[in-house]
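User: two proteins, same treatment. go.

Assistant:
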Amino acid sequence: MLVALDSLETGGDRPCDLAIVGGGAAGLGLALGLAGSGLEIVLAEAGDEAFEPWHQSFCAGSSIGNLPLDPETTRLRQLGGSTNHWGGRSRPLDAEALAARPWLGLPAWPLEAGELRRHLAAACRLLEIDRPPDEPWDAPADSDAAAQALGGPTLTPAVWRFSPPTRMGERWRTELAARADLTLLLDADLVDIELAPSLDRIQWLDLRSRPGKTLRLRPKVTVLAMGGIENARLLLACRRQLAAGIGNRHDQVGRHFMGHPIFEPLQLSLAEGARLPELLHDRDTPAHGHIEGLLHLNRAGQEALEATAVDAAFYSDGQFGPPGFRAARRLQRKLGHGQLDASLIRDGGEMLGDLPGLVHESLVKLGWLAPETGRLTVSTLIEQCPDPASRITLDQAVDAFGRPRARVDWRLGETDRRTVRRFARHLADHLAARGLGRAVLAPWVIDENLPFPPHGNSAHHMGATRMSHSPRTGVVDPDCRVHGMTDLYIAGSSVFPTSGSQHPTLNLVMLTLRLAAHLTRRLGHA
């Protein structure tokens, strides 16, 4: 059943087996993964089915770190969450990404890679990723002789596969609404959590609609699936019974916030007659669906450079196009979200100042003009080294329900800077040694006294409620249960201890399906 909270005939208390708070990739993935479990489930989505400015305003917050991030435009408060604006780019975390990195002092994830991989086929189905279930993920790269020749001991060819992209709210709405075991509430904002006197379990959840109707939900188990920023914000804001917030006895909630900043540190001028392997182009294939190749800094390369993971791809004008095209995309997104402020004038001026770039890239995207292939920009997505000072805290400003807004202190650390610069130099030498052409490094790569340029924000919010064996080093245990709580779990990329260089959506759905299997066992249903 799908219904707005305000349309329920009665308020008061409502018991259920499981409450899922949040209707994005994690919340909907969990509900879909629990189909047939026999559990009575209530899923509370704070927004509506479609984008609505009033609901979206709750995402607003401040950004104070050296990596700017707009909390409002990088996430969506509506059914389907951020799958309503993701690009579909996907690659699963592997054993290498989950392993310890002694050269950086990074511990391993507290679970085996196989525990995620067993849910890969189901996650691909939910996200409509076209991949034969028995085909190795990187099969297109493994079978491409030219791509393998371009790789080496430190660089491994790999592929992204793509979801259409699936808007999960639209795609799975009918199936979820038809289920008798699930009540999907819209406009149902979690405003407070009441703990039992023992402070280790939940007595009830207070939900509120925009018109002010309330519902007290009494679940046996609760899962917060509100997103990489909002999960931490909610735990920190519940201070009425615990001064530091829920699950925050050791001051870990909100810390180790990570993203995937994107930089373009070098350009490659191809030698006469040289060309990149076909794998490194974005394309459809009859056997493998929609794919795009990349070069991955593998474990040997990371250790040699004392760096984190990096994924590098080659584009005729950068991953996001020339400045005018990027400004036009920002302008379109802000106008679509009803964001009317001074930044619109800046973006409009940048767009008009680069009309040739805007027109050229638009024609390329429309397929009316072939991309330039002689000079290529290398776009790098880096894995950030977890930093406890990079964090989510509470702002002085409050939302319409009186709760503190999120304050994001997202930081680019010295390890991150070293990773980008060393990787760029290493790749330049690697490409030259293979006779592909001449690589030109950006000035800020050569001169380490120069500041880093603005990053391309991937809007991947990870790590602020990280998974750990001990409550002294994280927020949830390997089953995603909040340390010190018996009945509270967290789903989504906020529990990632490290981010890898892989995009999070596919991986958080895999981890959520693992949680669905755990909850089915715990609650004792077939």
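Protein 2:
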Amino acid sequence: MTEKDISMRLIKKNTPLFETKVKNRNARSQWKDLTSLCVAGSLLVLSACDTVGTKQIGEVDSVDGPLGGVASDEPRATLIAQDILSSGGTAADAATALYFTLAVTYPIAASLGGGGECITYSRDTNKLENIKFPVGLAKNGGEIGIPGNIRGFSALHARHGRMEWSSVLAPAEKFANFGESMSRAQHAAMLSASSKTRFGEGLTNLYKNEDGTFKPEGTKIEQVRLSSVLSSLRTNGGAFFYSGNLAKSFIDDANSAGGKLTTTDLVYYKPVWEDASTFTADAITIGTSSGPQGALYQEIWEKMFAGKGVLNLDQEITLTKLAEASASSFQKYANYNPFGAGGMTSFVTSDNEGNAVSCIVGLGKPFGSGKIGGITGVVLAAALTNKESEFPTTPVLMVNKPNKNFFYGAAATGGAAGTLSSVYTALKIFAEGKSLETAINSPRVFTMGQGLPLLYEQKVDQASLGEMTRQHPVAIEVERLGAVNSIYCFDGKLFNCQSRADPRGYGLSLIQR
């Protein structure tokens, strides 16, 4: 099924959200007429009063020409981000709206209870920054972690957003309150992770039938308690979650599930802004996480690429070279689980001013603790050690800083294999000169070290496989290795931008033409 086929399944809804026209996208928007949202008896006007040039900020389709780009693991979230961009929003506005939509439509990985990090690029400041908001650990221990996502995206929007906070949260609130059809992305992720996930009573009631089977794709899922939380956040701001009555309600939920959270734990939780870790490939500056996962990305890149592709002196990145880099870089992590289990998700956004955001968020494992708060409806993250959680990957942005041109953004999931897949996709573009579509579709291989099995995707050609098995005699075919969401702007020009969600999943991207 194509991305267009997936998105067309989402169109017919009883309560449309935005007035919109079809332009520069690979799927029609599913929301057409409603310009205001009625939730809990109050009317929320989505458009704002500010204008930038001829753009009416908050008015869908007020932007002429290229919008920028979006790619994520869940189609509905991508479509919301697309409408934000067409309303004059920035990449940060789109990323914020996309995340809170995911919290409703893809809670297996993107619950309000989770955490993550983003890389941002602002053309005004010409800076690559890294904002971190991981799941925190309560001072007194316990089984439930401190949510980071709400603080993180509040800070992202405050620094780089343009649209009203209430506008970017409104779509998620509507979905939670009135219900939304479960997407294939969420359904497939649950099926894949079912053997690794503990389903508490709340999750069971939400996603399973009385006989214990999963509710089918397309089932309308209503989350009224979660809608109430989103309504409070929309009205009062993200900080409201960490103090006052809402904080007390969440603490009651968490501690009923085995947590030991206190008001102090929430009040003193803060996201951290840092300069992104950077390295260069000719004129391109590559920004990654300032943590170990960023250093790992750079290590793999430099083992595979001498840096001449940006100057059009193409260098072939073979699967044999990929296997060698994988074995060398991941040997020290051989006692980790190399794969993601579905507890993380990624997305990337850019706007028509050259700003970009790349993010990875998650619960550490699918549905975190497996429990939903009875008061708040939030899926609770477990307090996990590094080895208990999925192997971390890094968001990535690439820019030409002297010219202030955004070239590339990507984020990947899938554990250690996701990191390797992210590097490989980028190098197929920058080293070999391939298109984004060719790069992201290219078959992948992975190993955790010499003497360990070589994992390969079905489309790996037999000649390459034969060459690699001389060094890695045990070879195992797997369905997929990593999932990459990406935007690529050829020559750093906005009108040459394209985006792709990895075809190995059921996500969706906005495609520039």
